[in-house]
Amino acid sequence: AQTVTQSQPEMSVQEAETVTLSCTYDTSESDYYLFWYKQPPSRQMILVIRQEAYKQQNATENRFSVNFQKAAKSFSLKISDSQLGDAAMYFCAYRSAKGTYKYIFGTGTRLKVLA
Amino acid sequence: GAVVSQHPSRVICKSGTSVKIECRSLDFQATTMFWYRQFPKQSLMLMATSNEGSKATYEQGVEKDKFLINHASLTLSTLTVTSAHPEDSSFYICSASVSGAQETQYFGPGTRLLVL
User: Fold this and answer.
1) Among B46, B83, B53, which Cα is nearest to B68's?
2) pLDDT by 10s per residue, chain B, length 116
3) What's phi and psi for B72, nearest 5 deg?
4) Distance from CA of A76 to the nearest CA of B (A)
């Protein structure tokens, strides 16, 4: 069975600085999808970034980028030029490319942004 | 695009009553919808996967007779908590995948249920 691990329960970053959130996963599959979701205090889950395992190029979305290391089964999220609005819980999620479409979520990392 | 709504956003009910929560995909068709439960400061726990026109698939440990799920159309799924008890108080979140591009789930804003 697949698992997703987020080893950092909480992280802090100074405004305008860069922070990296870690995510590792375990799977025997070769084709899958990985996601980072943000959950601010409103509790609305917001898609931050998505990565297809068959793509070697790391996904980027404006200030958000990932470092996808397939062999190491690592999928970290880098937030550049951190803003106060980035403060939230961040969840890493795995989805197999076949079978059911359900996600496997990590336990989350709470990001605090310091002014 | 890909907006999911939930109604109500919060509900308070008496123990023993039933509560229905609606999940709608507003600007896309969703063959598959998901229902999650989230306890404070915890991750999302998948309760069931709902496919339009068929019976929901429940995760292990989730009582299907207590949490009734109906996915009658490509834009609407409902979760009914039957005979609710205080331990059912929680934050319930639905999500939906776009038909034909089902890799990504889009989430509703959630429903806070308080059972007195």
Assistant:
1) B83
2) 789 999 999 999 999 999 999 999 999 888 889 999 999 889 999 999 998 888 899 999 999 999 999 988 989 999 999 999 999 999 999 999 876 666 789 999 999 999 99
3) -80, -20
4) 18
CB-CB neighbors (< 8 A) of A107 in chain B: 42-43
Q: Do B95 and A45 touch (CB under 8 A)?
A: yes
Residues 6 or more apart in contact with residue A73 via CB below 8 angstroms: A24, A25, A26, A27
Q: Which pair of structure tokens corresponds to residue A31?
A: 């084709």
Kindly determine whether residue B110 and residue A44, on different chains, have CB atoms separated by under 8 Å.
yes
**B51 DSSP β-pair partners:** B32
Closest chain A residue to B44, measured at CA: A105
Alpha-carbon dihedral sign for residues A28, A51, B31, A47: positive
Write the DSSP symbol of residue A72. Answer: T
Within 13 Å of residue B46, how many CA atoms lie on the same side as its CB? 22
How many Å lie between the alpha carbon of A11 and the closest alpha carbon of chain B?
Answer: 15
Q: Answer for the pair B115, B13: CB distance below 8 angstroms, yes or no.
A: yes
